[in-house]
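Example record used in the benchmark description.
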Amino acid sequence: MPKHEEDVEELRQVLGTVSEMVPNLIKGIIGSVFSAEAGKNMGAAVASFYKELKASGLPDEVALKMTEDYAKTFTDIGKAIQQAMSQKGGFQVPVPPKPPEETPKEEE
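Model output (structure tokens):
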């Protein structure tokens, strides 16, 4: 078999494997974020976070605000996953713009 045909066959196998794995990976991610167990774990993590802040001597208002912000990270992650999954064309990874090329300074 010519090298080109071997490469095409190898690519076909890789893409076949990826097409089987990606849906399961996505289901696993969604399940880990939106399951009852994930909610229970999030609640325990938030409660533990608050308890540690209070044990460290932070005032109630500060500990509560920090805990609210901490809990918000969980919901923000969930919203980001939902948004990514609902977009047409699937999840798009943003590519940062290239920095402008520096031009050498002319010596005076």
